[in-house]
Amino acid sequence: MLEWIVNTVNSLGYFGIGFLMFLENVFPPIPSELIMPLAGFVVTQGKLDFAHVVGAGIIGSILGALPWYYLGKRLGLKRIQFLADKYGQWLTVSGEDVLQAKQWFDRRGNLATGLGRLVPGIRTYISVPAGINRMSFWTFLIYSTIGTAVWVSLLTYAGYLLGENYEQVKKFLGPISTIVIVALIIMTGSWIIKRKTRQN
């Protein structure tokens, strides 16, 4: 897969980056943790511009999130869970994954849409509960774009710094993802405590 990603970025440039990031959102097994750092490395060679690389990554990623959003909006939770359990092995998603994303979204709403784009494994599926809950399209687009811009910029800059060792980026993402998850748990806990306090 790495060779295919390298060839696509080298031959198609910005369009290739956008295309790969679109596929990464539609087919999660394709890792953005390789695509954008590789693009950052290509920037160091003077072949591409950093800002345009980030822009291409954001556009491709958001376009890839839209089918999931509209899928959630059209089908609803139960039907999506059924389809995920039946066919999800092709996309590495199960009905339980969809339910967890929905529960996470219910706790934090708009914020979950943005922060969810920063967490590998959740960043794609967070679009589904946004659709299920019929979040406004423009609200979804704004929060998704903010979260995606942070994620894409981080990956691209990491690849830019690491140069030929861009494949090592994945090792550095573990602690960052953990920090984001812990922050979300803390925010969710505080929200639950405040809610219970109001009820009492």
From TrEMBL:
Belongs to the DedA family. Residues 30-160 form the VTT domain. The chain crosses the membrane at residues 12-30, 50-71, 140-160, 172-193. It is a multi-pass membrane protein. This is SNARE associated Golgi family protein. It is found in: Cell membrane. GO terms for cellular component: plasma membrane. Keywords: Cell membrane, Membrane, Transmembrane, Transmembrane helix. PANTHER family: ALKALINE PHOSPHATASE LIKE PROTEIN (PTHR42709), UNDECAPRENYL PHOSPHATE TRANSPORTER A (PTHR42709:SF6). Pfam families: VTT_dom.
